[in-house]
């Protein structure tokens, strides 16, 4: 983190039909964060729903943004919200679903490729960089031979839904740690064995 404003983007697809999908876990984490800072999502001048607030008085301002586009075209809304708040990708945190992590696992990453995630691919293309923080929310691999693109567009199973509040809280805690400590110290906290 370099500035006093941190833009936190929760990836997902818009509309009620997608709200409970595994692909929307990033937006679910933002709902948890908004509740913690007492903020409400509102329409914005950029193509995002935005909520603003601070974790602590005098702490960095958090701009929570849910792109109004579908996952695969997240780059335009992300780029526009960064421009609106005059924030560089160094102060961007993207919260997204991650097939390559077991369900109920949270991992932080500082940069790198998109790993086949089309939302990240479009953000990297639109911002011209892969140098931004990611909160990777483990959703696990699809069972059997189920197509991954079908799997991510399904709601969490009844068993997963029992644990989901803990996963969302862990994701929100991870964003808070990045805001308070910076990425490296947050990684040490989040990745420490429990």
UniProtKB/TrEMBL annotation:
Source organism (scientific name): Curtobacterium citri
Annotated coiled-coil segments of the chain: none
HAMAP family linked: Pept_tRNA_hydro_bact (MF_00083)
Family: Belongs to the PTH family.
EC numbers: 3.1.1.29
SUPFAM superfamilies on file: Peptidyl-tRNA hydrolase-like
Tagged with keyword NADP: no
Keywords: Cytoplasm, Hydrolase, RNA-binding, tRNA-binding
Catalytic reaction equation(s): an N-acyl-L-alpha-aminoacyl-tRNA + H2O = an N-acyl-L-amino acid + a tRNA + H(+)
Gene that this sequence comes from: pth
Major enzyme class: hydrolase
Record-listed tRNA binding positions: 18, 70, 72, 118
Subunit composition and interactions: Monomer.
GO MF term (any one): peptidyl-tRNA hydrolase activity
InterPro entries with a match to the protein in the record: Pept_tRNA_hydro, Pept_tRNA_hydro_CS, Pept_tRNA_hydro_sf
Major localisation: cytoplasm
Highest taxon of the lineage: Bacteria
Function summary: Hydrolyzes ribosome-free peptidyl-tRNAs (with 1 or more amino acids incorporated), which drop off the ribosome during protein synthesis, or as a result of ribosome stalling. Catalyzes the release of premature peptidyl moieties from peptidyl-tRNA molecules trapped in stalled 50S ribosomal subunits, and thus maintains levels of free tRNAs and 50S ribosomes.
Residues under site feature: Discriminates between blocked and unblocked aminoacyl-tRNA: 13
Active site annotation, chain numbering: 23
UniProt-recorded name of the protein: Peptidyl-tRNA hydrolase
Site entry: Stabilizes the basic form of H active site to accept a proton: 97
Compartments, record wording: Cytoplasm
